[in-house]
């Protein structure tokens, strides 16, 4: 008789709440990861995120080997995998951490039904966030759709618990099930190594975060995003650190939770405008223009540098993400869903809630979004945030003072965007 702990987007042994509780249970624990075919089948074979997951799992497995246990890796559709596991093992309890995306919620409901039908008890835990969707609400119980009051309530609640408890799992490792499961090669999972790698996160510069974070050439942000996405770092540790170190940095971590609760309460935002009054906008959606944006050939250095950085590394600085997103929606009048899908394909830190939330923010269609008549000027953004052209030179090898011809004139595009939005917004 055994318990299972099912890893999903919490790929660490340290300070992992679900794992902590599993290891405290009465049965020995088999740690499991499922490569989900429903997700993998749509990805290119050299997807860097799959490579990162694989590498992380290898490290976890090596750590487990030191306690004479090992990770059980399966590949398939999660329900079928669990059906097989129920035949193979006498499973009494299954532990996992909650995931708030619509696909994950449906998957987990279906698996819990299956497990419970086999007299297996399931336990789920809040691990991915400090406060989940129903913990931070307005006085009337409705969700916040504006960031600042959400943040104030979040901080108020955090202050009552500061610091948030971290969970020491290391003393409990003897409760892992002794095993030596085969660890597959990346090829056996159907993938090959990518040349793009997730870089380690960096907290040394956070002291000056509020002064440096907007300057892509300074490169001073934390690079935490893929680590928070896949749970290779604990959000509790990061928030406790941020609360001691830098309030602006902490507020960025709160943006992450803000968009997560928006996605939970308004799952339509995945494909539709949060503000339905914006549904009438006549997008141009020109395929050629889109291609020039994707490949970084718009003639605007900051836009092109950003897109090239994304294509080459799977990362783009936040200031530049705002500029390229605004450019796509406002200068080219291409609907945000196209840009969101392109980012989803390329970003190592791609996270549905943050991606959709920020894209809708840039398009003006989201909750608490920038007003539609505010159109970023990519030249002014360059002057303000990369005055010496250090960032753009890094990504545009042919950059010089006379770089390119803008594919569309800024003043023309700005007027067109404002007029098109104005005409399209439903009264
Ligand atoms: P830091 O500045 O060090 O921030 C620390 C952490 O705070 C980040 O790792 C992230 O978890 C969180 N954070 C910071 N800014 C935001 C924000 N605006 N919204 C939500 N969380 C934030 N972030 C993603 O994690 N995944 C995405 O798919 C994603 N798509 C985006 C799309 C667009 C159009 C824009 C404008 C932003 C997007 N962001 C996304 C937010 C932000 O750009 C990245 O989180 C940030 O650049 C990651 O780098 P960092 O970890 O060094 O950030």
From TrEMBL:
Name this protein carries in UniProt: Deoxyribodipyrimidine photo-lyase
Pfam families under this entry?
Answer: DNA_photolyase, FAD_binding_7
Q: Which cofactor does it need?
A: (6R)-5,10-methylene-5,6,7,8-tetrahydrofolate; FAD
Organism placement in taxonomy: Bacteria, Pseudomonadati, Bacteroidota, Flavobacteriia, Flavobacteriales
* PROSITE patterns, sorted: DNA_PHOTOLYASES_1_1 (PS00394), DNA_PHOTOLYASES_1_2 (PS00691), PHR_CRY_ALPHA_BETA (PS51645)
Q: Does the keyword Lyase apply?
A: yes
Which UniProt keywords are listed?
Answer: Chromophore, FAD, Flavoprotein, Lyase
Asked if the Swiss-Prot or TrEMBL record annotates the protein with the keyword tRNA-binding, the reply is no
Gene3D superfamilies in the cross-refs: 1.25.40.80, DNA Cyclobutane Dipyrimidine Photolyase, subunit A, domain 3, HUPs
Q: Which InterPro entries match?
A: Crypto/Photolyase_FAD-like_sf (IPR036134), Crypto/Photolyase_N_sf (IPR036155), Cryptochr/Photolyase_FAD-bd (IPR005101), Cryptochrome/DNA_photolyase_1 (IPR002081), DNA_photolyase_1_CS_C (IPR018394), DNA_photolyase_N (IPR006050), Rossmann-like_a/b/a_fold (IPR014729)
Q: Could you state a single Gene Ontology molecular function term?
A: deoxyribodipyrimidine photo-lyase activity
Species this protein is from:
Flavobacterium plantiphilum
Question: What positions does the domain Photolyase/cryptochrome alpha/beta occupy?
Answer: 1-130
Task: Give the top-level enzyme category.
Answer: lyase
Record EC number: 4.1.99.3
As for family, the record states:
Belongs to the DNA photolyase family.
């Amino acid at each position: 008789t055994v318990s299972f702990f099912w890893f999903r987007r919490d790929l660490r042994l340290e300070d992992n709440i679900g794992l902590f509780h599993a290891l405290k249970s009465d049965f020995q624990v088999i740690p499991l990861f499922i490569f989900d075919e429903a997700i993998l089948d749509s990805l290119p074979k050299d997807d860097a995120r799959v490579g990162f997951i694989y590498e992380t799992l290898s490290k976890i497995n090596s750590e487990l080997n030191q306690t004479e246990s090992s990770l059980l890796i399966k590949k398939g559709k999660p329900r079928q995998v669990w059906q097989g596991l129920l035949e193979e093992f006498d499973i009494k309890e299954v532990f996992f951490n909650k995931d708030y995306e619509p696909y994950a919620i449906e998957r987990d409901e279906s698996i819990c039904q299956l497990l419970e039908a086999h007299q297996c008890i399931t336990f789920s835990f809040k691990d991915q966030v400090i406060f989940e969707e129903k913990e931070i609400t307005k006085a009337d119980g409705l969700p916040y759709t504006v960031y600042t009051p959400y943040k104030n309530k979040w901080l108020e609640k955090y202050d009552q618990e500061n610091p948030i408890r971290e969970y020491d799992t290391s003393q409990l490792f003897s409760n892992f099930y002794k095993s030596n499961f085969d660890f597959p090669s990346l090829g056996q999972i159907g993938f090959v190594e990518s040349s793009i790698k997730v870089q380690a996160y960096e907290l040394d510069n956070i002291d000056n975060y509020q002064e440096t974070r907007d300057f892509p050439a300074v490169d001073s942000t934390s690079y935490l995003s893929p680590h928070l996405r896949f749970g290779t770092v604990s959000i509790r540790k990061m928030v406790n650190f941020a609360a001691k170190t830098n309030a602006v940095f902490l507020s960025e971590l709160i943006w992450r939770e803000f968009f997560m609760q928006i996605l939970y309460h308004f799952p339509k935002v995945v494909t539709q405008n949060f503000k339905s009054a914006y549904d009438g906008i006549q997008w141009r959606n020109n395929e050629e223009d889109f291609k020039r944006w994707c490949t970084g050939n718009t003639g605007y250095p900051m836009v092109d540098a950003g897109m090239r950085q994304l294509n080459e590394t799977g990362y783009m600085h936040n200031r530049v993400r705002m500029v390229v997103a605004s450019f796509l929606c406002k200068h080219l009048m291409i609907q945000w869903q196209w840009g969101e899908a392109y980012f989803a394909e390329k970003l190592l830190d791609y996270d549905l809630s943050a991606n959709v939330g920020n894209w809708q923010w840039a398009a003006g269609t989201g909750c608490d979004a920038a007003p539609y008549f505010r159109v970023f000027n990519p030249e002014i953004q360059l002057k303000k945030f990369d005055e010496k052209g250090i960032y753009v030179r890094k990504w545009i090898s042919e950059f010089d003072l006379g770089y390119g011809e803008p594919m569309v004139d800024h003043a023309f595009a700005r007027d067109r965007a404002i007029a098109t939005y104005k005409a399209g917004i439903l009264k």
